[in-house]
Amino acid sequence: AALLNPRYQFDNFVTGPGNQFAYAAAQAVAERPAKAYNPLFVYGGVGLGKTHLMHAIGHQAKLRYPQYSISYISGEKFTNEMINMVRYEKMSTFRDKFRTVDILLIDDIQFLAGKERTQEEFFHTFNALHESNKQVVIASDRPPKELNDFEERLRSRFEWGLVVDVQPPDLETKVAILQRKAEAEQTTLPTDVALFIAGNVRTNVRELEGALTRLIAWCSMHGVEITLPTAQMCLKQFIDTQVRKITIEAIQRAVAEQFGMRVAELKQKNNSRQIVVPRQIAMYLAKQMTEASLPEIGRQFGGKHHTTVMHSIAKIDEQKRHDKDLARTLSKLQEILG
Ligand code: ADP
Ligand code: MG
After folding, report:
1. Average pLDDT, stretch 251-279?
2. 252 CA from centroid of ligand 2 (Å)
3. Which residues are found with C-beta within 5 Å of the ion, ligand 2?
4. How does the average pLDDT of the chain come out, rounded?
5. Residue spans of beta strands (DSSP E) within the chain
6. Distance between Cα 46 and ligand 1 center (Å)
7. What is the C-alpha to C-alpha distance for residues 320 and 338, in angstroms, rounded to an integer?
8. Is the ipTM of this complex over 0.95?
9. Which of 50, 51, 48, 72 is CA-nearest to residue 61?
10. The pTM is what?
11. 40 φ, ψ (degrees, to nearest 5)
């Protein structure tokens, strides 16, 4: 399990309509572990504060209950640790480690999609903790129902306690986040600049922070004040590329995330259905949303022949006509990609 990031606290988490319910639930869990909501399941898009909230729960609970053992781990790390323990025949060590904590914070659970053995292990961990009245907090990029390639018994357990979502911040919340962050950097951020950034960077808080960091660095390097014209100039490129340019890489990232897999898997020579369908979808979107030619798309998917690309695109095009789930997935991805 990883250490908690000291920067992720409740008191520097800015709340707004999109996240205040999740925030309140997280606080309740930190104050009364295993008594308020168990498990607490938080889901939402990338960069919207899920990890921040999980760490904040850890910090706050540690303050309230210093004797508690609190463990934070990502789905990916959980998987890797389990694989290692299996390899070295140390499963009992692994089990003890996770079944003796008072609070387990497990992040990015979608990573366990399709990993049967890891899910099985997590299922037992979950049961052991829940039965002995220990708190489990789970973060995911999507709600339990949409966790494809998950065992039903796990999905249903995820809904035993409270399921909350985090939605993208509205303009006011974005401005408040920027002001708070500027304050932390001991910088004053004029309101018009904050509004400019908030209005032009889309929904992701991490990107919002990135824009501000860039602006602060740029101004300090050039020894100038932070003003609107400066911000417009310095962030032009940042904002332009973010709004307009959709790359095959961006598509691959979005698709991989949507299906809880890694980008590398989209490029492998693996023809299991679990991988083929997301790959076909990614190719389809690459054709639709970029200028890339078929051979170019093939190259970016691990060197596929252009006829394979063509076939994939045709397949999705045909299937989306009668497959509502697929149609929905496609439009969701298109929306994410802008
Ligand atoms: P997620 O886990 O949902 O992808 P993170 O928790 O990693 O997102 O958040 C991305 C960045 O944005 C972090 O630096 C986090 O501190 C910051 N952040 C997100 N939401 C907020 C918020 N409401 N207030 C302050 N900072 C936030
Ligand atoms: Mg996260």
Report:
1. 91
2. 19
3. 50-51
4. 92
5. 40-44, 70-74, 103-107, 135-140, 162-166
6. 9
7. 20
8. yes
9. 72
10. 0.73
11. -100, 125
